Amino acid sequence: MKLSRQKLLQSDGGVSVLVVLLGFLVGTILVALVGKNPLNMYKALLQALTGYNIDNGRMNVRYIGETLNYSVPFILCGLSMGFAKRVGLFNIGGEGQYIMGMTIAQMVALLGPQVQTLHWLLAILSAIVVGALWGVLVGVLKAKYEVSEVVSTIMLNYIALYLSRIISLRMPGATTFRTANYPETAMIGNEFFTRITNFSLLNNGIFMMILAVFTYWFIMEKTSLGYGMRATGFNKEAARASGIPVVKSISISMAISGAFAGLAGGIIALGSFRHGRILSGMDNYGFDGIAVALVGNCTALGTTLAGLLFGLLKNAQPLMQSKQIPKEITFIIQGLIVIFIALRSALKLYQQYKEKKALQKEVGVR
Amino acid sequence: MSTIINMLPSVLMIVAPILITAIGGMICEKSGVVNIALEGLMAIGACTAASAHVLMEASGVNHSLSLILALLMGFVVGGLFSLVHAAAAINLNADQTISGTGINLLSVGVTIFASQILFNADRTREFRMGMQTDALGVYPTAYIAIAVVVISWFILYKIPFGMHLRACGEHPGAAESVGINVKKMRYFAVVASGVLAGLAGGCVVLTQTIQYTSNTINGRGFIALAAVSFGRWRPLGVAGAALLFGTAQAFSIIANNIPALRVLPTEIFNILPYVVTLVALVLFSGKNYAPSAAGKPYEKGAS
To answer: Model-level pTM?
Structure first.
């Protein structure tokens, strides 16, 4: 029993599950403390996950579709963060890369050639490319000029936000918050999904997401590029000494990282809306992606699961609100999860402390 | 020229909270702890101050007293939340960027959650009257900001305590070896950044709006973070950077009144602080002005 507990605390996946449970536990206590019934929170979560309303026994599959649809940007932004993290970079810039991808996808959707398939494909590809470029900028600043990626990405997020406004306000039919509707050819809706999920917004973006997850796994685990990156992340100097081009490694990984976030932006722009948006604030998918990657330990599978969890939480928000639970409890739970992850280092300290104690005991006995 | 003078009060109104927060962030980094939670701490301070002011107004507390108490509560609650970051970064050797991000995420939830409980809405109730300007048209927050700059400069550069604090950020091992308590110093610095960010949040909400919403802080904490880097971790530099960034923000609001500027999209002024910081970081690259131990956990006894 003791051994298995130790094993659990040493495995990354085990710690992640523990951290998520802790986050929910504290969230539940908080809800109870303010005099609401925590059970309603879980009812909302159940309904968002399975579509089954436990109160009146009705089933609505639309919720399943929406949960899946919400998790797409979370997973992609999580991959974005995770990819950079593996090289030892903390990419807070997912939000900016997401916004740039979204903006360019909107632009191509509104102005691009209205040819079946080619139109949306072009929009999505532009989103990926622009997201990648926005990421490369961070990589070059870091590798060449030693600008901390934490500071530069925060700056680039806001630059992206206002740049997006400048561009989108000049699109056809722009008002203060939206542009004209896209032509049909730019949409990535999926009639089959719409039919089986009772008109949820689930769209072809989910296929692109699955492809992205697979790509992530393949690059990381199966190519020498991924190996070099992971080596750089573990120990930059050792990687340099063993002939891995560190500067190139950093720039490429930021490009790929940005590409994932850009794709997320493209999918949201074309899949969840019929018109371009003029952002007045951030969508926060990029920021939440940080949490998703951290919970998922930056692995393909872990990030996917964590993204699904976050999509579930987001979809459950309106349901919670309708059950008198402030929907912000989901943000609190997410924030707590990240803080608990930061505290993970405490586990190591605890382990050291215990080893020291054990050693002292041994010495004392003899 | 007269437009610029007319602009001055609103520039000061916008600069003051950014400056107060930035000074806190600077003190924190000087001690060796990076605090990217400034944004979240400002939000928490703003929500606390707004709620306190509304509730005290409703119960008939004297207006000035209510304002002072509201600011004070923002100050205290900001400090309390920063303790989370302090404990994580100082005692538990946590990754400071992750714990800062955690607090930023948490603050979004906590502030609106509290509003939902207190006021049954996703924002605090509107208060009747915020801070009033003095005879010169300047809000008291500007004087608070100036005081914070002077005091921080005095503490950091004129008394031994400040020198000790800076030593903890440059070379904690050396500091420890001459008997400075690195952990205590860093705790002081992190809490200082928390209380100042909380106070600044209160200043924002009581001068610039009539209630707290999820959009009240809107990146001001991140601008403050930029001001710390751009100001090269010196009180006067940070003050200059905050002034520059605040002026740019003010321009985005008042550019409509100046014909020559009306042709530009107002977003240009919003972008300015961030672009200037990025360019500056590139230009200054190679010369490292940041405290050398900033962001690294310090373990006593480890080499």
So the answer is: 0.91
